[in-house]
Design brief:
Length: 1117
């Protein structure tokens, strides 16, 4: 009976699914924008579907080999996509990029969220996008706005409602954005298992993204975490092959039945002459053994006939399947009390359900009552927003009705959560829109490509940013916060991927004052993830282009958005600009991609007590951090030994390489030598031969002799009289360099020589320098001058540099140089000179040179070789990233700005200078009504306390100012803020509180500042510009030009901390204190063109003689 009952229930469920109400939509469509629904590349205009595999710069192809059973095995060519989407390919791979290029996606709803999603689709390479909204004018306005930055995007507006059930196969994905829930449910029920479906909604500080990719959705790559590669060599070949690892690996790392990617140089196979690609084979591991401390693997690959070569292997995840349910099933399942029986049915239908990502105050991926309360609030808002005829403005009657409706949907709904939701839904919080838009695009791309692990649900609840101490949202306070956030001044350092997203969000947050620093220029590869650039901006400054295009989006209303084409450094120019724009309401946003830039900005923030918001991206991972003056640690304090920079020009690069990275760095150095350094040297020689040769001798005889040969080779080309002669001589030059730098026959040799010829030919330019009149007396004079210099050089005792044999070689080389007819001809009548070429990733000849040089050198030293895309990534130190990850990082960072503003309203911050614990010995009372004056035993040192801080005087001269902070009172304030980390490939999110600053206390009882707590945020301000004398009779300040003396500063510091000051350290060096410099002016010893310098104090305890840590001095001249 139980079995029969179960069967009947299952049949009833299936019948209910099968008889769902149909959605009656019209079938006729009219395209009003764009040209081809199947256009695979919206950035590149109208490229037809049959050209998908021929996108500019693409060299992808599929080849075949044999496995042990003689069946064909697919070998994917990991080619290079040197167009707009090369960074996307670095993250997702070539096959995924093909899937994206051919995809057609339907967007339902024309609104601001749609704008964000479509922009991500375009930058990721989605082939074509269709928009449906029952208000055609909204669709037209949306497309016009998108076209400002994406003029060639292939966007099609549908004039009539699509029939989702019949046309599901037309689209790879259908995306509902801020649409009525019931419409989305009905459409989803009809297209389940026919088309990928995504639904998203944003309200205030909340966001929801639901995905239905059908049952048995294939995931071919779990995450972007890559297993390490190991170099191997063949030890036997047959229908199966033994590989022996040549790099260190533990036997336990591999096991039987593992799948591995084997990367090999396909062009080395005899039957593939003329091919130059690197290919990847998927193989199964049959056995794993350990011999002579090396691991050997038996793989199911037939390598008979293969030459001996070094290959690489890396483990890969096995594909797996995930099950998704329709939106209607999801809502019913989370709000119904599930019995064991219904859970059993879910197990039957959803054997491997997709996961959930919850970005909420109580993180974790397990649903609880708070999460269900938020979702019920979404459902209640959906019912009221699309059905309620009354006002949507905040009023208490509506508020009570809203909470009751939430309770009706979910009886256990938390009233506080529903109340906060209803209050916050009145506010537009742009970072939430950007975050949800990025998640929608990201999950859709996962569904299309089957790359990375998708989630069934992304739930975002950032109400925690706006809560008061009792956990409630104060509507009036939040209203003030929106104004505070928009009135802050923002310093954006970097106008790349993060910088562009920051700027777009700030503009939508109604921020009025922004300054952005960046000295870089736009490259075509930037367009796929840097949202403010167009193809017309390539070659132009990033900062200028970003501000220009941002103003285009906002009708030129952003008058106080300023750009500075400068690298943010400690330079005078940068300081002058920053000082002119800085205010005490400034927030710094770090969007730089290097450690040194971050540290420079962090130092600036410490000096000026500015909050710093920082983010980092790598592939599908991103992290965000926030650093608040006196509340948290600083960015620099978290680095420690990470600040050490590795020297890339190590012996492994210039000597014997050990890794493919070494060979790539070598090829970049060789490129620079052949096409930059040599050309600069030759042009100097053509202008002034004697001076150039004399300077060359300073580098030693080997360098000198090599330079003589370089002159001969290049003058041979410059002496040509016709184009055909130039071609012949450049070919001769290329072959000569091949023998010198490569030295063995290789299938890549033709590519290398061809790239050299193209590059060298491109360097020839009409000669601009003055031609020399060459005759015998001129040549004799040059030779005599050089010989005199050589003789003098030898007489100076430089025998180590110039031995007798070397001396003779140099004499001989000079004579031969000027006897060479081509050299003389070039000096006298050359019609060309050389220009320099620098490596550009979008130039075929540049990339061919680096690719061939790196791999030929790798082959020579038994290092596994790499494809062009990987070589490019190493050469350019490319950080792989896609636009969706960038937006999630940027939006998460900027949300913390709202927390800064809300906490300022609750008096969490404030420079509390409570000095009750400070022991000023022998206090003498109060002078005047403003100053609290405290005398020390040494009557010449005294202190005053005012709203300007604790000021130290030597006699009646102001020496230094310190602003103490009450760290005891604020020790837990760091818990108000969060650092975030995302691994978006597997949809994991972690957050933690920043650490409080490291506190050190003045512990010497005899110190005037005994008991005072200090951190790295504190500094001693010594300001010459505000230095003044205090008149004891009038109790007024008298400004004089007398500078502060070193001895006066030393005496003040020793009194404050009861230490002995040994010296000072600044960026220009160390200064030890002595009787002479004690009487010197500070401005004589410390100078900086910026007018400001940070000085560290070298001091030790007066009693224990131990080194003691003191705040730095911020010296302003």
């Amino acid at each position: 009976m139980l079995a029969l009952f179960i069967i009947n229930v299952v049949i009833a469920v299936l019948l209910e699914i099968a008889t769902c109400r149909s959605v009656n939509f019209k079938q006729d469509h009219v395209l009003t924008h764009g040209s081809d629904l199947r256009n695979p590349n919206p950035f590149l205009g109208n490229i037809k579907t049959n050209n998908i595999s021929k996108l500019p710069g693409r060299q992808d192809s599929v080849h075949h080999g044999r496995n042990s059973k003689g069946k064909a095995t697919s070998v994917v060519h990991s080619g290079i996509c040197r167009n707009l989407f090369s960074r996307v390919e670095l993250v997702l791979g070539s096959n995924a990029l093909d899937s994206i290029s051919s995809a057609n996606v339907l967007i339902v709803g024309a609104n601001e969220l749609s704008n964000k999603v479509i922009a991500h689709f375009i930058r990721s390479g989605i082939g074509s996008i269709c928009i449906w909204d029952d208000d055609t004018q909204k669709s037209n306005r949306l497309v016009e706005r998108i076209s400002l930055l994406h003029p060639d995007a292939n966007i099609n507006i549908l004039k009539s409602e699509p029939n989702f059930e019949k046309e599901a196969s037309t689209y790879r994905a259908i995306v509902f954005l801020n649409q009525p829930l019931q419409s989305a449910i009905e459409a989803n029920d009809r297209i389940h298992n026919k088309c990928k479906f995504v639904f998203a909604s944003t309200i205030g500080a909340y966001g929801l993204v639901f995905s239905d990719f059908g049952t048995n959705h294939l995931v071919t790559t779990r995450s972007d975490d890559k297993y390490p590669e190991h170099s191997c060599k063949f030890t036997s070949a047959g229908n199966k092959t033994w590989l022996e690892t040549t790099s260190k690996v533990q036997k336990s790392f591999y096991s039987e039945n593992d799948t591995v990617n084997l990367t090999y140089a396909h062009y080395l196979l005899n039957e593939n002459k003329g091919e130059t690609d690197i290919q990847v084979l998927k193989c199964k591991v049959s056995r794993v053994v350990e011999e002579n401390n090396n691991v050997k693997l038996l793989i199911d690959l037939d390598t008979r006939g293969w030459p001996q070569m070094t290959v690489s292997i890396s483990k890969v995840d096995e594909p797996f399947f995930l099950d998704f349910a329709p939106l209607s099933h999801f809502i019913k399942s989370i709000f119904s009390k599930q019995s064991y029986f219904t859970l059993f049915l879910d197990k039957i239908f959803l054997s491997n359900p997709a996961g959930r990502l919850l970005i909420t105050p109580k993180s974790g991926n397990i649903f609880n009552n708070d999460h269900l309360s938020v979702i019920s609030s979404f459902l209640a808002f959906d019912q009221m927003a699309f059905n309620f005829t009354g006002t949507m403005d905040f009023d208490w009657n509506y508020h009570r009705y809203f909470i009751d409706l939430c309770r009706k949907i979910y009886p256990q709904c938390d009233d506080v959560i529903a109340s906060n939701f209803n209050k916050l839904r009145h506010f537009h919080i742009p970072p939430i829109d950007f975050m949800v838009g990025a998640f929608v695009a990201q999950e859709t791309i996962k569904g299309i490509t089957n790359i990375f692990t998708p989630s069934e649900l992304v739930l975002i609840d950032r109400s925690d940013l706006f809560l008061n101490k009792s956990g409630n949202v104060d509507f009036d306070i939040v209203k003030k916060v929106m104004s505070i956030v928009s009135n802050y001044s923002y310093l954006v350092v970097g106008a790349g991927a993060l910088g562009c997203d920051y700027l777009r969000m700030l503009a939508e947050m109604s921020v009025s004052r922004v300054n952005v620093f960046d000295d870089d220029t736009v490259e075509i590869s930037n367009l796929s993830r840097q949202c403010l650039f167009t193809p017309d901006d390539v070659g132009k400054g990033k900062a200028e282009s970003a501000i220009k295009n941002l103003n285009r989006l906002h009708d030129n209303t952003l008058k106080d958005y300023k750009y500075h084409k400068l690298l943010f450094t400690d330079s005078f120019e940068t300081r002058a600009i920053v000082n002119s724009i800085w205010s005490d309401k400034t927030i710094a946003l770090s969007a730089v991609d290097n450690m040194q830039g971050r540290i420079t900005l962090d130092n600036f923030c410490i000096e000026n007590n500015i909050p710093l918001v920082e983010a980092g991206i790598h592939g599908m991972k991103c992290s965000t951090s926030i650093f608040i003056p006196h509340i948290t640690e600083s960015y620099s304090s978290t680095m420690q030994d990470k600040m050490l920079v590795n020297d890339k020009s190590s012996c492994t690069v210039k000597g014997i390489p050990k890794t493919i990275e070494d060979t790539v760095h070598y090829s970049m150095e060789l490129f620079s030598w052949l096409f930059d350094s040599q050309h600069v040297f030759i042009n100097k020689f053509m202008m002034d031969p004697v001076k150039t040769l004399r300077q060359t001798m300073d580098h030693g005889h080997d360098y000198f002799l090599n330079a003589i040969q370089v002159i001969k080779d290049n003058c041979d080309i410059l002496s040509s009289e016709s184009e055909s002669e130039i071609d012949k001589k450049i070919l001769k030059w290329a072959n000569k360099n091949y023998l010198k730098y490569i030295g063995y026959d290789s299938p890549l040799g033709d590519i290398w020589i061809s790239s050299l010829i193209r590059l060298k030919t491109g360097c020839l330019t009409p000669k601009k320098c003055k031609k020399l009149t060459i005759n015998e007396s001129f040549i004799d004079e040059i030779k005599s001058q050089v010989i005199r210099f050589l003789t003098a050089f030898k007489r100076k005792g430089n025998n180590s540099e110039l031995s007798k044999g070397s001396y003779e070689k140099c004499f001989r080389a000079i004579s031969e140089l000027f006897e060479d007819k081509n050299v003389r001809k070039a000096l006298e009548s050359a019609n060309f000179s050389y220009s320099s070429i620098f490596f550009e990733e979008n130039r075929e000849d540049c990339l061919d040179f680096i690719y061939a040089t790196s791999n030929m050198r790798a082959f020579k030293y038994n290092i596994h070789q790499k494809d062009k895309l990987s070589i490019l990534g190493i050469a350019k130190a490319i950080v792989p990233a896609i636009s969706t990850c960038v937006s999630i990082a940027a939006s998460t960072s900027l949300l913390e700005v709202y927390r800064i503003a809300i906490l300022s309203q609750y008096n969490i911050f404030g420079h509390d200078s409570d000095l009750k614990s400070t022991n000023f010995k022998n206090s003498k009372g109060i002078i005047g009504d403003i100053y609290l004056s405290l005398y020390n035993d040494d009557i010449s040192i005294w202190f005053s306390l005012s709203d300007k801080g604790l000021r130290c005087f030597n006699k009646n001269k102001l020496i230094a100012t310190l602003k103490p902070f009450n760290y005891l009172k604020s020790r837990n304030h760091c818990n108000y803020f969060n650092h975030h980390f995302f691994n978006l490939s597997i949809m994991k999110h972690f957050s933690n509180h920043p650490n409080p600053p490291y506190i050190f206390q003045v512990t010497n009882p005899n110190a005037s500042l005994y008991g005072l707590s200090l951190s790295f945020w504190d500094y001693i301000l010594v300001d010459e510009q505000s230095a003044h004398f205090y008149n004891f009779k009038t109790h007024k300040n008298v400004f004089k030009k007398n500078g502060i003396l070193v001895g006066e500063l030393v005496k003040s510091i020793e009194n404050m901390f009861d230490v002995i000051v040994e010296g000072f350290a600044s960026p220009s060096g160390y200064i030890l204190i002595n009787d002479l410099n004690n009487r010197s002016s500070l401005s004589d010893l410390f100078f900086s063109p910026t007018g400001q310098v940070v000085i560290s104090i070298l001091a030790y305890d007066r009693h224990s003689n131990k080194r003691i840590e003191l705040p730095d001095i911020n010296y302003r001249m």
